[in-house]
Amino acid sequence: MEIASKYDPSQVEDKWYQYWLKHGFFKSRPDHREPYTIVIPPPNVTGVLHMGHMLNNTIQDMLVRRARMMGKNALWVPGTDHASIATEAKVVAKLAAEGIRKDDLTREKFLEHAWEWTHKHGGIILEQLKKLGASCDWDRTCFTMDEARSKSVIKVFCDLYEKGLIYRGIRMVNWDPKALTALSDEEVIYREQQGKLYYIRYRVEASPQPPPIEGEKNKGRLGEAVIIATTRPETILGDTAVCINPNDPKNAHLIDKKVIVPICNRVVPIIADEYVDIEFGTGCLKVTPAHDVNDYMLGEKYNLESIDIFNADGTLNHHGLHYEGKDRLEVRDLIVNELKEAGLLEKVEDYTNKVGFSERTDVPIEPKLSMQWFLKMEELTKPALDAVMDDTIRFYPTKFKNMYRHWMENVKDWCISRQLWWGHRIPAYYLPGGGYVVAETKEEAFQKALSMNNSQLSIDDLRQDEDCLDTWFSSWLWPISVFDGINFPDNEDIKYYYPTNDLVTAPEIIFFWVARMIISGYEYRGEACFHNVYFTGIVRDKLGRKMSKSLGNSPDPIELMNKYGADGVRMGMLLTSPAGNDLPFDEALCEQGRNFNNKIWNAFRLVKGWEADMVISQPESSAIAVQWFRSRLSKTIAEVDDCFAKYRLNDALMAVYKLFWDEFSSWYLELVKPGYAQPVDALTYRATLDFFDALLRLLHPFMPFITEELWQALSPRKEGESIMITAPPSPPDRGDELPSFGGVEGGSFETVKELVGHIRTIRMQKNLPNKDELTLLVAGQHDGRFDAVIRKMGNIGEIRRVSDKVAGAVSFLIHTTEYAIPLGDIVDVAAEKAKIEAEIRYLEGFLASVMHKLGNAKFIANAKPEVVENERKKKEDAENKLRMLHENLRACL
Question: Which of 15, 70, 255, 812 has a CA between 20 and 30 Å from the CA of residue 565?
Fold first, then answer.
């Protein structure tokens, strides 16, 4: 197989991906082997690849490729999510652009448009993942609204309803006025907002102005009014009470009185409850039961009227009086002006508070009383909480266990209904005379209704609930439903592949998805749904901002792969993304990945360009190099295994990266490389090819395309062979090591590398050509076992031990041993002397400044110990360098 002079990913990636597909390497069916299973976090069906997907799916592919190489029956299940809110919003926008309003369509007609949109745009992201190298079993692709998954969702709803865990009722919910649907608590993102605190006068009904109380500030009233502080003056039109704390002496005189709500002139009672914070505002709280969850609880407790002043879209309804039809945020400004003109606005203060925003549409949510469906969570969470806390399910990193525990211990009932058409329609059927039945199909519902003494009923009299289920109500079943384990709980797939092994996901959906999947696993399989959860970080730009389309700071992943190659982008992202930590993305990372590809490619071309000679003997330097690199390879394999076991995946890649770049390319290949136009001995060549094979197999999970290309070219291969189904390298048998080179793997060889580095520095500083042989003088302890390496790498003709200084030699220290290179007539002594003297003058000045600092008692007393220690280290280093320079200067004389 001929290797091109330059690595071109475009000529490699698609070729090998098609080869893998052709030979079915991604496919998995139950057999005798140990299974390894990952289910993909299903992206939105109409979504496109972004940088978060790139990171998440690169990690998944790396894990499944490694498992496949280890001989496991590896399965990565792909799929997409129907994304109710996001997809419906896109379809509504598309229809609006065509002059069609959703309200003008029947549900069936709208769903035709939604399915058309899904078929047109759906699946794009899965095709993009193939370019990344994702080794999913594409024959198993699932969709949360395909037949099997839809049946699973409906079956689970009916089952939980029959168990008494699903109920319907009017509750305060988080309402999204843009998406026109309720949201669960987890779909609300709270942000600090700079707002205003408005102090409004509520007149006390038929109450003369009380006489001033001497010594009392009387903050709670001014004239015949109480002052109430609020951040939302537009909601006063829904006020049905004012509440004070019964333990508040400054407002105690108001108990049992009534006040008049401004503008609407509604007379409402003043109630007393310890819920009120005496220190907030004036200690008087307006109560709006329809638009605040805490006010709702007060309303329930004191039987207060609940007046909903908002339409579903956030505009005011008829209770908003002359503001009817105007948006809530517009009314805020208008009502403040009206209060000011009426003399009812006492003052306005700047105020910072947390406001809830819809996670989907990014608009402020509106607390709203609404008839919704809920799932009782308290009992369901107990086994799921225990599983994580006792490490039945392990989190990487473990810091997310506390976040998980806090949510699970404070869980609220899950609002599972959404006022949308795109999704799984709730299987509840209403009867003409009131009441409803829950069943998987309309036919089953009809039979249930007949059994309830509705003999005159026809099936057409049943009316199905208009709402659909929360998207997460389908994806929480994902590890089970992808194997159809709800509909067929004893099928071969679910028994073999479940529980899955690893889940790779983002911590921001730990509650939306991770916790709920664990809950459903215990409810419907009686065990954990996966063993390990690896949390990725957020991909951020160089300024630390989360990448997003709105900020325009997110590069197109496809363009990145076209520019740097899929392997280059994969590696660039993996190197700087430890579990749970954010990834500060810089395109330079992808460039680094591409450069590494080129390094591997060029090293391979170098080795394959050698001619092996079966007759010549192996040089001593090559024998040492082979033994040394075998030891380094063994250590790195063990390190990589350990990193994977601990899910330190970026550390695993870094270990292989350093081994290839720093050890294999920079040292090993230089050590064994034959002279120009000369052959290499067969022993060394065979060892080098074996090392390359091991390195490619180590790298394959991280960089699948280039490793397949080079592995195929390394030796003759048969059709159907692939690196992805070969075993990963294992540490060589320790018995293979030569006893006489036991120090090769330790500090001795590192000392040799340092020594050669000094020799190269002297050559560079003195402009000595690499082709000119030098002599190395040694004064002190020296390990002669590696002299062959020093001669080869430093082009040293002679290594000689001496006891005295040699005139005209440049020396350097390694530990306590002094080495020197005699220069003789090679360099201009006068120029060298001038250069050394200049360096001495500089160092003497530097040392003087350090000594001045260390002689300052104030500095010693006030500086941090580590700062003082650093200055002392500078002094010691400068003194050692000066001593060496003076010795070199004397050698020039």
Answer: 70
